[in-house]
Amino acid sequence: MGLLDLFMVASVPVMKVLLICGLGSFLALDHIDILGESARKQINNVVFFVFNPALVSSNLAQTITLENIVSLWFMPVNILLTFILGLFFGWVLGKITKAPQHLKGLVIGSCAAGNLGNLPLILVPAICREKGSPFGAPDSCHMYGMAYVSLSMAIGAIYLWSIVYNIVRVSSTKSYEVINVKNESSDEETSKSLQEQLIDELDLEGTSAMDDANVSLLSCAKTDEQGKVFILDKIKKQIYSFFRNINLKAILAPSTTAAIVGFIVGLVPPIQRLMIGASAPLHVVQDSALLLGEAAIPIVTLIVGANLLRGLRGSGVQLTVILGIIAIRYVFLPLIGVLVIRGAIHLGFVHADPLYQFVLLLQYALPPAMNIGTITQLFGSGQSECSVILLWTYSVASVSLTLWSTYFMWLVAKS
């Protein structure tokens, strides 16, 4: 199959996404107000608690078995690599552009977390249905493609809420601390010495702790043993603070819980025989979950379009930051992803299913996750800047996804 044919196969699903997103933006206009802020909030709740879990559990349950679960072990590793690479590039971008403190977490998160849920849920089934798709029969392609995408969405949610959530939280907290310090020390103590800052951080108990710390710092009389104890205490406090502040409720989101249920149904033969298949006694439960899950894709696409409308209002985010995020997500990460997946195939870490390889490659070329906007709203930091970043990155994604999808399909088809 030629590149032009593959380009047409890849472009049609992206055009469908753009059309539905455009409709969502139109319905969110102030004089239309069908998808206003309150309506989006309510629909998002339905999608989050009902449609997405049904989609994830039903697709995993009917495709995941004891035989093929071993072959999927590389997907969690691959997604973690996308996050680690994105974190590194985002940190470098923040240093180069000198992004404000309250935006550093947003910049790093936008580079690290791709939209592993909504867009693949739309693109992969649409590509499967297109004539000339390199992934075989449409029904088989759709069934296995949805399983791969559902697993990707569940794993991505865990990483997003355990890594990016805490990065944005720390960034927001530090920005608030800087503001408070500036307000409290307008006339006095404008420049604390390094010794005083270290004493403040020690937070030792007792009335004479501050004096003791000052004396020890000035005289440098601390013993090696005391220094080691201090370092160990600091490490313990950091570990405790990390686990205490992890949003376990967000990590164990409905989609993640639904993925666990789907795994149990697919991997436990008695339960699988009870629910999966036309002759199964409880197949109506699986059929109902599939029916609910099918509603997730068009509704989510409408909500994406409605949310992007907020970015048109603009904000003070630097142009270099936006261009840097676009370059990282649509140039650097996909190029590295090709090298990673080709290397994994060569080493035998990834099996020979072209659709599976395509999904792994696609995970490197996606725009930032929409839930980053939700995270910034939780901490009240960078909401308008996030809307602008999402608007421009998703606008460029219409071209980038088409080109990369074409190349990825050509790559897996010839291998």
TrEMBL record:
* InterPro entries in the record: Mem_transp_PIN-like, PILS1/3/4/5/7
Membrane-crossing ranges are 6-30, 73-94, 106-127, 147-168, 246-268, 288-309, 321-349, 355-379, 391-413
Q: Where is it predominantly found? A: endoplasmic reticulum
Location comes to: Endoplasmic reticulum membrane
Classify the source by domain of life.
Eukaryota
List, alphabetically, the GO terms of the cellular component aspect: endoplasmic reticulum membrane
Q: How does it sit in the membrane?
A: Multi-pass membrane protein
What are the record keywords, sorted? Auxin signaling pathway, Endoplasmic reticulum, Membrane, Transmembrane, Transmembrane helix, Transport
GO biological process terms, alphabetically, are: auxin-activated signaling pathway; endoplasmic reticulum to cytosol auxin transport
What function does the entry list? Involved in cellular auxin homeostasis by regulating auxin metabolism. Regulates intracellular auxin accumulation at the endoplasmic reticulum and thus auxin availability for nuclear auxin signaling.
Q: Which family does it belong to?
A: Belongs to the auxin efflux carrier (TC 2.A.69.2) family.
Q: What is this protein called?
A: Protein PIN-LIKES 3-like isoform X1
The scientific name of the source species is Coffea arabica
The encoding gene: LOC113702329
